[in-house]
Specification:
The chain is mainly alpha-helical. The protein has one domain (28-102). The chain is built from 5 helices and no strands. It is elongated, with a radius of gyration of 20 Å.
């Protein structure tokens, strides 16, 4: 059974359809592709590593004084994003995407 899974996975990986799908997912080598990866994946993780505790404390304090529903959602989002600190997985994923972009 396990051997069959390995064989099937290898067949899928070597399939021309799969290879075409992977190539079509690759972003263009441009400033926008680079900035998209940096701004939306890498930068939030770096901010979470450096200021995650302070941002979470600010958001929890803001939740106590939130006057509107939008403020409550804003502070809830901040708590969800920065409560755990930075993610090494997401940082590694961003680095891998940058490498894939320029290879």
């Amino acid at each position: 059974m396990r051997n069959n899974l390995h064989i099937r996975a290898r067949q899928i990986a070597q399939s021309p359809v799969t290879q075409k799908a992977v190539v079509s997912m690759k972003p263009d080598k441009s400033v926008w592709g680079f900035l998209g990866i940096v701004v939306f994946i890498i930068l939030p993780e770096i901010i979470a590593f450096i200021w995650g505790v302070e941002i979470t404390a600010y958001a929890k304090e803001g939740l106590l004084h939130a006057t509107s529903l939008i403020d409550k959602y804003y502070f809830d989002l901040l708590v969800m994003l920065f409560e755990e600190g930075g993610s090494w997985f997401n940082l590694g994923l961003g680095a891998a995407l940058l490498i894939w972009l320029f290879v």
